[in-house]
Amino acid sequence: MINNKTDKPEIIRLENIFKIYGSGETEVKALNNVTLIVRQGEYCSIMGPSGSGKSTAMNIIGCLDRPTSGSYYLDNVNVAQMDDTQLAHIRNKKLGFVFQQFHLLPQLTALENVTLPMVYASLPKNERLEKAAEALKRVGLGNRLENKPNQLSGGQQQRVAIARSIVNRPVVLLADEPTGALDSRTTQEVLDIFGELNASGITVVMVTHEPEVARQTERIVWFRDGEVIESNLTPADLVNTATF
What GO MF terms are annotated (predicted)? Predict the structure, then answer.
């Protein structure tokens, strides 16, 4: 069932976003006048064919890149043209990231991997360890705190990555193909965690090329040729993605 969150505050607002690479004959508009709103507590996915602009949009939403022009409001702050230091601060304070590859440090335990975002936040060590353990318990890994990545399954490693992404209590959790390296059973386990996190109030935005994954989100945004073609698709609309 689709939750009606239209009365919730805006967390993400992209306004007339262009991202242009090159110039003249080599100019490429990776994003062409994109406007998109995500509200607090939403669970939405971004889809589209290769080269559609969905990854570029995610990089801008994640403050990993800046638009050529346009405005991007994250939690009511225009971050579009912030410098690298400001963007790094925004990323650490307001955003959590989960990627297809888990990006865990192999020499560190699960607990130590999850503490890393808090190192940059200058939290005391005891507080970092306590919060990391709490996050790991939240994703069902309370009994794996001292395991290193090579002692964990792919699904467990992704759970560690999710715990790391939420340990600073971000306003938005961004997931880029988070199930791409997982089998179908483990994919569902990870998606169940995303669903539980969203039900607890965390805003989740996910890039995926898999319709069966997107169907488990509340709203689907469809990109093509650098533009938003559809911004309010429901899971039921994904019967035939060739129509978009």
Answer: ATP binding; ATP hydrolysis activity; transmembrane transporter activity
pLDDT tens, residue by residue, 192-241: 999 999 999 999 999 999 999 999 999 999 999 999 999 999 998 887 66
Whose CA is closest to 244, among 4, 234, 44? 234
- Residue 62 structure tokens: 């994640």
pTM: 0.89
Q: Name the E strands within the chain.
A: 10-21, 28-39, 43-47, 69-74, 77-78, 95-99, 172-176, 203-207, 219-224, 227-233
Contact (Cβ atoms closer than 8 angstroms) between residue 194 and residue 45: no
If you write DSSP's letter for every residue of 36-79 in order, what string do you get? EEEETT-EEEEE--TTSSHHHHHHHHTTSS--SEEEEEETTEE-
Q: What is the pLDDT of residues 130-162, one digit of tens each?
A: 999 999 999 999 999 999 999 999 999 999 999
**Where do the domains of the chain lie, and which CATH numbers do they carry?**
40-64+84-237 (3.40.50.300)
Which tokens sit at 98? 């989960």
Q: Quickly tell me which residue has 């964990």 as its tokens.
A: 152
Structure tokens at 72: 């991007």
